[in-house]
Amino acid sequence: MVMDPISPGSDPVLSPETQPSSPTPATDPYLPPPSLPSRYESQKRRDWHTFLQYLRNQRPPLALAACGGAHVIEFLRYLDQFGKTKVHVAGCAFFGRAGPPAPCACPLRQAWGSLDALIGRLRAAFEESGGRPEANPFAASAVRVYLREVRESQAKARGITYEKKKRKRTAEETGAEASAASSSSSLSSAMAISTGAAEGCSVDVPAGGSS
Hints:
Elements: H1 39-56, H2 69-79, E1 85-86, E2 108-109, H3 112-128, H4 141-158, E3 165-166, H5 171-182, E4 192-193
Antiparallel strand pairs: 1-2, 3-4
Helix pairs in contact: 1-3, 2-4, 3-4
């Protein structure tokens, strides 16, 4: 028997006569519909794939197991070429001024808030992929120092102040705190969460990683 050729990448379509007969699975009305990944999970997955592609594009390619804090910092610097945040240099007339009235030739960089959120997602993705917390390159002290330097330099150059935002407490938490205070015990204050002040928390990166 001679079969019609099937073009590469295409799936053969079975006619009704050739399709195997199988019972249609019954839908359980009590089961919830499959949930879609959250925006955070989707972004984390994209960031992780971008980082792995960046490692593969190195010459020679770099294995994840050999990746350290210095490689993570190089990755963050690589991302600066795709940034959208104007960071004034020391010689610019708008250095240290928030909301400059005119354009200038200063470079565009990734905002500190975007990089800080990116590292948080990659740190979680590393451990979710089987990496040991003590070997997590995204949690290296050198990376924390680099992010702090970026925050301070951008705040100075852009004339803005990065502040930590406190988590809003619920009425139940507020009542518990008042009760604890009356009995000479105190509750811990709400955890301060770093946010990317005035900037979004997504990083613009190319799909193919490093060139």
